[in-house]
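Appendix B, Record 12. Input sequence as logged:
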Amino acid sequence: MTIYFNDSNEMEKILGINDSNLAYLEFLLSGQITTRGNQMTFSPDSGKFSSYMERLIKLSHLRDESFAENELYMEWLAEGNGEKESIHSYDLSVNGRSIWPKTTVQKKYVASLFENQICFAVGPAGTGKTFLAIAYALSQVLGGKKQKIVLTRPVVEAGESLGFLPGDLSQKLNPYLKPLYDAMEYFIPPVQIKKMEESGMIEISPLAYMRGRSLNRSIIILDEAQNTTKGQMKMFLTRLGEDSKAVITGDITQIDLPHRRESGLLHALSIIHDIEGLSVVEFHRDDIIRSRLVKAIIACYQENEEEGY
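Logged structural output:
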């Protein structure tokens, strides 16, 4: 079976630079691919090859770079499951820079960010929980759909002072919120982040200082939620005002509270069920995309915990 490309750019996005994706495509399709000019031939003859390539060609028009192997795999799964909707239907664009979900769970997560007012994202490090939340928040605020981003995390218990750190409140909190700023700096330069802070488009706040507030037209991101208390979590979830969204991210394997059962995240997940507009997305070890090494390290720790070490 032979298909024809409209131009070499379209072909390169699928095959990769210097045909780097060719071997992987042959592995996925269980066959042999040969190329000549603007045509690609696959053997043995297969209708799946044709429909899969049509899918990739269509998607190639929406992107500037070549497909990565994991993206080819996710589209292969989607094609095999008869899904008409691509993971790239949930792209996030910030300052002209677009990203897409890289796993099925990430796809579910991004869809949930668009469709729900409150979204819990729970799972191990390296799964993109915080990164995708920041991408979504920036796309909404810079696109004029929301007024500001509020960043918070349980740095201290309610009533405890941050006075041991130098500077004003923002400077005291910055070290704790560095992972969120790292994610923002992937999309926009530090100078722009500073301007957004000065204009009130980005606000950072200790969790304890949010009591009594009603946040409107905002996206509020609560990071490291596994370290909230039950009271803090209840307080946070009741801050949402008109046209606001909340994203709660956490890893229940990294609870730093003195008593694990006091975690506000664990408690919320145990009692919140079947609420319209609220979703819980659970990431697993297979969703780690930060690096293969991180995935291997987390696997080792999980295996040791299961063995009781």
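The chain has a mean pLDDT of 83.
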